[in-house]
Amino acid sequence: MEDDISIKDLFGMSCLHLACGRGHPDVVRNLLRHLGDHEPESALHEQVQAKDNRGWTPLHHACAHGQLAVCVALQEIMGGELEVLGRTERGLTGLHLACLNGHVGVVGWLLGVNGIKDLGGEGLSKLVDDENRSCLHAAAHGRHGDRSVQCVESLLLAGHEIEVQDSFGRTPLFYSAGRSEEGGAAISTALLASDASPNSIDNFERTVWHYWAGACDVESIRYALSRYQMTYSSEDVGSLLKEKDKRGGNLLHSACLAPSSEPSDLTEIIRLVEDYVSIHEKDNLGRTPLLCACSSANPNALEVFSEEGADLFALDVQNRNALLLLLHSLNSLPSWRGEGGGGGGGGY
């Protein structure tokens, strides 16, 4: 029987991995009970902790696919000896995977299991992968609407620190930014409501505002600005919104590079920040937001900034005007433009 269970496919997965990932708790119980009855106890532990080619154990598969009944079945058989903090080759735990995929029930179960519950808030925050990403980073990056928001809230309720940074200096708030069409705005709002700071600057000298603008996430910008204006002076707000990245671009430059920006969203962003950020400001290459729109062939941004009174005759450091940049951009566009997605503030 052990030989049958231990046989693996080309991906390194045994029948136990498959049963766990596909949600068959009765099969899991039968396999493990039969193994426990006919083989040494060490064989049982070996199969439950066996890893596939990615370093995933059967529990990792159950957590990633939201198979709560399977998780419970594994705990019934293994008791306190179930390794709930096992890591994949990338350093991900089952809790990371459940958070990333928005499996609220599994997240709640894991947070209540001995071995994770005993960590407390500080220990939970230090549960990071190979790129120093915490479980809250994973939950904030989720693309599952209300379920991802609930995962975020569950972690915060368990005491998870909200400002933990990954290897790129990004907090969980960065991971929710840049994905307004995938529920990122709701996650950003939940984090901001729990006092996540929009002040942080990542290793690329970008603020979360750059990423919000780059996705034309009007909802997050509006909500963050309303909270920030209640707490800080106008000078402090202006200083934050004027922050430039390594290329010298502010949030309006980022907005012009957004591939799917709608004119109404761009206009709203300009209105929200017009008291703090000028549409005439240039980056390190001498480009105004309008010139950025031309260099990225963004017709909506070009239309909006033209209507807002941007200087159509501004020149970059190479003395190129808007028309030259637009022609150069159109001439160099690949035929498959538009099939790729824009980058967010952090990802998996």
Overall morphology = elongated
Sheet bearing the most strands, described? none
| Mean pLDDT over the full residue set | 90
Helix percent band? 40-55%
CATH topology-level name of the largest domain: Serine Threonine Protein Phosphatase 5, Tetratricopeptide repeat
Tally of separate domains: 3
What string gives the helices and strands in order?
HHHHHHHHHHHHHHHHHHHHH
**What is the tally of beta strands?**
0
CATH class of the largest domain: Mainly Alpha
Rg of Cα set: 24 Å
Q: Name the structural class.
A: mainly alpha
- Please give the CATH architecture of the largest domain: Alpha Horseshoe
The total of helices stands at 21
- Beginning-to-end CA distance, first to last residue: 38 Å
Which ranges are low-confidence, i.e. pLDDT below 50, for 5 or more consecutive residues? 333-343
Q: What would you give as the CATH superfamily of the largest domain?
A: Ankyrin repeat-containing domain
Quote the beta fraction: under 5%
Describe how the helices and strands are arranged.
Elements: H1 2-6, H2 15-21, H3 25-38, H4 41-48, H5 58-64, H6 68-78, H7 94-100, H8 104-111, H9 120-125, H10 135-140, H11 146-157, H12 172-176, H13 184-193, H14 208-214, H15 218-231, H16 234-241, H17 251-256, H18 263-273, H19 289-295, H20 299-307, H21 322-332
Helix pairs in contact: 2-5, 3-6, 5-7, 7-8, 8-11, 11-13, 13-15, 15-18, 18-20, 19-20, 19-21
